[in-house]
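Lab meeting, action items carried over

1. Structure of the four-component assembly. Owner: GW. Status: complete.
Input record:
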Amino acid sequence: MLDVTPHAPGKDEPVPSSAQPTRSPSPRYGARPTMKDVAARAGVGLKTVSRVVNGEPGVTADTERRVQDAITALGFRRNDSARILRKGRTASIGLVLEDLADPFYAPLNRAVEEVARAHGALLINGSSAEDPERERELALAFCARRVDGLIVIPAGDDHRYLEPEIAAGIATVFVDRPAGQMDADAVLSDSFGGAREGVAHLAAHGHRRIGFIGDRPRIHTAAERLRGYRAAMADAGLPVDESWVSLGPTTPERVRAETERMLAGPAPVTALFTGNNRVTATAVRVLARVPRRVALVGFDDLELADLLSPAVTVVAQDAARLGRTAAEQLFRRLDGADEPPRRVVLPTRLIARGSGELRPEE
Amino acid sequence: MLDVTPHAPGKDEPVPSSAQPTRSPSPRYGARPTMKDVAARAGVGLKTVSRVVNGEPGVTADTERRVQDAITALGFRRNDSARILRKGRTASIGLVLEDLADPFYAPLNRAVEEVARAHGALLINGSSAEDPERERELALAFCARRVDGLIVIPAGDDHRYLEPEIAAGIATVFVDRPAGQMDADAVLSDSFGGAREGVAHLAAHGHRRIGFIGDRPRIHTAAERLRGYRAAMADAGLPVDESWVSLGPTTPERVRAETERMLAGPAPVTALFTGNNRVTATAVRVLARVPRRVALVGFDDLELADLLSPAVTVVAQDAARLGRTAAEQLFRRLDGADEPPRRVVLPTRLIARGSGELRPEE
DNA sequence: TCCGGATCTGACAACGTTGTCTAGGCTCTA
DNA sequence: TAGAGCCTAGACAACGTTGTCAGATCCGGA
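Predicted assembly:
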């Protein structure tokens, strides 16, 4: 491990001639130059290099140029780990989400990134895969890296493990679902109201037997949406047969089976309310193969939903706004806002496209 | 800035009673306990705490318990910045992608994350938004954090700025597109072959005037796909009218306008090959409003593409495999593999669903 | 009783950076 | 010409951790 790898560090400086004779001071492979090396090469003090690197004032143009030359010649890049250790602040925030690949969370992720960028912070993120233990691991790993703040889409329902971290100064905002067993900032969509509106929409079109397929009841949004369903049914004076309600994992297999079950029997449901984008996608697939026309309203919008036939009526959340709001709240905290924990609830929007306006066939 | 915030650090240890009387040793807000503090409280040496924290051997059960108690009592968490500084390795990799929110890159992102996790590494990622300058900023920011390795989806076409970093030991793998102006590991999809196959499919169904709408020619995949289009046309003995070819930004506005342009006039195209998922989505929207039946094959699969009518025929890439392959290659490098740069090209798969099998209407 | 060796423990330096403090040279004014 | 004041520059300590090394303790066997 002491490979000699010259590799001329020719850089972008469009300086005229004097192509320095590549007398690389034998930078061992993997051993990066430090400010000390730069200082030695430029014939200046360590601190002067620091000043140049950070654009601090108090360096003459001539000295600065010497330092810059040494920097490019050596291929120096400041070691942010050391900087972070020294300064205490990391200029980075962590985002724990459920699944990086879930199309619903992607715009949220991106929105958080944009806000972070605007504040000069780097984003570190990771997927909990709906596993509380993994959520915890990730969040604590971020804390060990001393992120300045944390945005969490909860997978678990007990977040007291974060209390020491929060007490130690790591600002934390929960998004999409509230924190479990503790009081903290949270930015949510109106799951209850949205589901209620969606189900009411179906009831208004004459449906009396409406099915509900959602995520596991442990998940706050799933429970809230079910509550919205029940409220809408009650509002419409409709009884709920418990065989019309199904909560559980959102795997295609389960959703498919449950959908088919609800459509079978002597008194099948004539309409379906699906609790999130994954459920809706599977339900659409099942319904496409069923001769009967079954009405459908789904929570969360889908790409291309407008192009299906019938086009899918949805209760849309603004995922990007969710992320933006949470990130802004986080940076407000980082800037010292000292208000009590806030809970923001963003409205949902019913987008009628056709599938929710089908009338029951009897 | 010396707020007193007691906040008992009660932890998860399910110890029987003795709810410690919350005598938090007044941890100043924002000032985290260090190993020194833990050592002082446990009455042991600094290094012993380090041993316990890292599970190193050579500590008696009794001493270990004392240290553990102090750790939970103080809410200590190891500062990874300091650890990284000391150890040199960060156990993290960086991923520069085009857009966190693009559904095509989401599975790639997730696959990289899973591989990183399997290797005990953390993933830091960010969106370049197709801006070469931003790609550079991000990649160098990751380097400053001393990631062990870097996976880049190139936005720019000159990556020599990474040479000093690579020389300094940061393993780098490019994915989806090759590096510009330098030789490096790359994992790609067979854009040329895929486009050729897709266009040949259209030609085989009797189309002679086939349009091509793709991304900006600066982007390697866009250029390759266009090359595939031309090859397929030549193979089929079909002339190409340059008005059937359009490369540029993939904004809905431009794609809409170009699609409409190609469908107008005396000799409109009867089939369309779209160069990526965003273009396809917009084209589908436009075609849905056109009375004439226009055949369509798109590069990249779309969620719900199978449910449209006609269902959309696509040339699918395996984005997850792209990510997995790249990440595995990266870790192979990190484990010391010293082969010359490798370029891996993954096959694409034509999925015929209907829209590509429409015959030309005349 | 004493010694060799194994086991446990802690003092100390180092990682690369930044904040503080002081020295030296210069200019400007009285 | 002396003194005050400014500007540039560098020495040094500190951030929190880990690797090295050496000291302390305890065991069994001679």
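2. GW to write a short summary for the group page. Key points so far: Residues 220-235 of chain A form the longest helix (16 residues). Confidence is low (pLDDT under 50) at residues 1-29 of chain A.
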